[in-house]
Amino acid sequence: MASKLCANCRKAASTRCSACLGAPRYNEGAGVDIDTFYCSSSCQKAHWNQHKQICKSLRSRKQLARATSILKDIVYCIFRHATRFRYASAHISDSVLHLRKEPRGTPEQPNTDDKDTFQLFSMPSDTDPLAAEAALVNQRSMEAIFYLFLWARELLLPAVGELCVEIEEYWVSIQKPKFVVKYTLGPGHVAEPDICRHWLYKLKLNNGEVWAFDPTGAEYGDPEPLCPWQEFESRTSAEIVHMETFGSAFFGNEQGQEESSSYSFVYFHVEQQNFQRLLTDKFMKEIRTEYGGKINNLLKGSDEAFEESKMKFLNDWDHNVQRAIGNFYSEREQAQMDERTRMCVARYVPDPDDELAEAYGREDYAAAMPNWMAAVDRVMSIPLPPQS
């Protein structure tokens, strides 16, 4: 390995600035991406005026990498404890991810309830790690964007996370996935792969850099959550379907939903909002207090201090997710979700036989989906009478 030269005196050197060490690459070999080495602490101190602007940019990247790694782990923890799709097996062969779905219920008593229960994600112990990770996040990219909104706002946004000047939610078509997905639904029944439609974040930093943050990229074979946006586009040949403002998935403004059952659709949205509330309301207050009023303080400190803080946070989060699931299935929470769904359907979903429905036309239901989702948010804010 060739020796490195001290940035100050040009002697052989092997030590890098610990403050920016480990920052992700943005533009290999150009400007701020050039490694800076020192032969001694005195040379490092003498060179600080030349290095500090580069160091500042690299520290921003390093903090971004820390934030996105935590955000990915947050949503993975939710998915591990609260999955609806069970797979009996997963393996990758010839650029195809084969997922064999686990049947629900029994042939005599199949589970056809619209309100599926959360289950613990599991895979056979000999499953390839990438295949298992892809199965965990398969078809859940939009769900991840929904659950991560409050956390991403705390860790990334200006005046809060102080990293990004803009965050956008992108729905893209992945043209060059590392693998496509085939589902085995039963004996002799294999579903051909669909085009991979996928949600992710586009992040614009204060220093002008543009990054792709994809917490569920393992779905198509890219488990690393962070890379430059240009690299993401080049690697995946992603075609943009449409772009949404930050928070659109959370607030229910996404377009193009097509559901056959209005009640089950509204119930699902109510359920998602309710589970999110149980996950975050109490826990985020506790974490904010623990870190001096700003959750993004979690990202600070030396590499060792950060890893220790991250481990503690994720352990606490794991316990919190399990607690939230227990509360979610309490009689009180389930009754409230049923009541809120009925309120929403009664107030905002026209009966097929009423005059309003006739005025809209018989095919208005798919077009009305965004309004229903916004209506759910309004109904969720209506206090229910206390249960006896």
TrEMBL record:
> Which SUPFAM superfamilies does the UniProt entry name for this protein?
HIT/MYND zinc finger-like (SSF144232)
Q: Name one Pfam family in it.
A: zf-MYND
User: Which terms in the Gene Ontology molecular function aspect does this entry carry?
Assistant: zinc ion binding
User: Is the Ligase keyword given for this protein?
Assistant: no
Which PROSITE patterns does the UniProt entry name for this protein?
A: ZF_MYND_2
InterPro entries with a match to the protein in the record: Znf_MYND
Gene3D superfamilies noted in UniProt: 6.10.140.2220
Does the record carry Isomerase as a key word?
Answer: no
Q: In terms of domain of life, where is this protein from? A: Eukaryota
Keywords of this protein's UniProt record, alphabetized? Metal-binding, Zinc, Zinc-finger
Protein name per UniProt: MYND-type domain-containing protein
